[in-house]
């Protein structure tokens, strides 16, 4: 196992990758890990470019994450955003902590002086040393928007709002009719992204949101084809346990696109590589073991193990089980 590539969103992808790195450190210390990170949640706030998933992965792997929250920095303060609010220009629904602001300021400055997001990410990672190569899925801005099914505040039904506004401000409790990735048609995969999939020995879809994290990366031109064509095995880990999104509101995303919130529903949504999908193998939680025959019938090799990422040892064991499932058979 020399090269492992992960397609990650924020919290779920970051936590899993931490376990993966811990496992590989023992069984394949020379292995390199590339994490292709969703940038569909990126947005401009107060003149700053915010990349929520890249930051979550970078802080988590680099030891700078607020562990309880799963995002942002520990011991954070909000003095700067309180000052912005005093001017009546705040985004009360999105936290911009003082320490976190430094990252956004450095990123925005580099972007404005002509660096690509890939270059900026590499630069930020020089400080955080995440132990894996982090690649944005694309250097072109791609922003996920949702189409509202009902009026809310100053938005009318049929309007599109940024996914983060729906997710963070409205807690995904406002009905939406679909997702739109603005900028996708003009976007190309960032340098190294397609090669990281093609040249991998193993590709992992961690327990990230299947719709707005992994789904958005898969929608970048060339990514799905690279996954379908790679000689590497592709193994996924279910973000759904016992019919519920473990943390967060992924069920609201799945139901919007008509996919059942279940381990088998998401597995079949990704589909078997033998029949046009992207998976060779799919790891589900032990409580969902009843789904194993349906997955096998669909041509997806599966196993059921504990999938709660409660601490590093449990998460490391999950990563080990995913690797085992991928290489056997
Ligand atoms: P986000 O961008 O911060 O929302 O993070 P991701 O897209 O990477 O992951 C979010 C998803 O991770 C959630 O929708 C959950 O379904 C899943 N998740 C979070 N914690 C766990 C866990 O402990 N175990 C499993 N199996 N899935 C989890
Ligand atoms: Ca995200």
From TrEMBL:
Pfam families membership: CofD (PF01933)
SUPFAM superfamilies the UniProt entry points to: CofD-like (SSF142338)
Keyword annotations: Magnesium, Transferase
Gene Ontology terms, MF aspect: LPPG:FO 2-phospho-L-lactate transferase activity; magnesium ion binding
Enzyme class: transferase
Enzyme Commission code(s) on record: 2.7.8.28
PANTHER family, A to Z: 2-PHOSPHO-L-LACTATE TRANSFERASE (PTHR43007:SF1)
UniProt-recorded name of the protein: 2-phospho-L-lactate transferase
Lineage of origin: Bacteria, Bacillati, Actinomycetota, Actinomycetes, Micrococcales
């Amino acid at each position: 196992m020399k090269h492992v590539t992960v397609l990650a969103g924020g919290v779920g992808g970051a936590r899993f990758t931490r376990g993966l790195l811990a496992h590989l450190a023992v069984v394949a210390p020379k292995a390199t890990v590339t994490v292709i990170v969703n940038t569909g949640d990126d947005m401009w706030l107060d003149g700053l470019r915010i990349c929520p998933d890249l930051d979550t992965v970078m802080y988590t792997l680099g030891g700078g994450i607020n562990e309880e929250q799963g995002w942002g920095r520990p011991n954070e303060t909000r003095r700067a955003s309180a000052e912005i609010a005093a001017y009546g220009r705040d985004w009360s629904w999105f936290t911009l902590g003082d320490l976190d602001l430094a990252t956004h300021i450095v990123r925005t400055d580099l972007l404005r002086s002509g660096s690509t997001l890939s270059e900026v990410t590499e630069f930020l990672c020089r400080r955080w040393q995440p132990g894996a190569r982090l690649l944005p899925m694309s250097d072109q801005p791609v922003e996920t928007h949702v189409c509202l099914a009902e009026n809310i505040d100053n938005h009318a039904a049929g309007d599109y709002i940024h996914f983060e506004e729906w997710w963070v401000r409205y807690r995904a409790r406002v009905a939406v009719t679909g997702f739109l990735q603005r900028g996708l048609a003009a976007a190309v995969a960032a340098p190294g992204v397609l090669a990281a999939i093609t040249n991998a020995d193993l590709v992992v879809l961690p327990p990230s949101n299947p719709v707005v994290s992994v789904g958005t990366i898969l929608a970048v031109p060339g990514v799905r084809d690279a996954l379908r064509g790679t000689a590497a095995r592709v193994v996924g880990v279910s973000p759904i346990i016992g019919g519920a999104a473990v943390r967060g509101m992924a069920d609201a995303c799945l139901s919007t696109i008509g996919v059942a919130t279940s381990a088998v529903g998401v597995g079949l949504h990704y589909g078997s590589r033998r029949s046009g999908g992207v998976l060779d193998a799919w790891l589900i939680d032990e409580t969902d073991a009843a789904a194993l025959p349906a997955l096998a019938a669909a041509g997806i090799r599966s196993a059921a193990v504990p999938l709660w990422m409660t601490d590093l040892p449990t998460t490391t064991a999950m990563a080990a089980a995913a690797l085992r499932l991928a290489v056997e058979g």
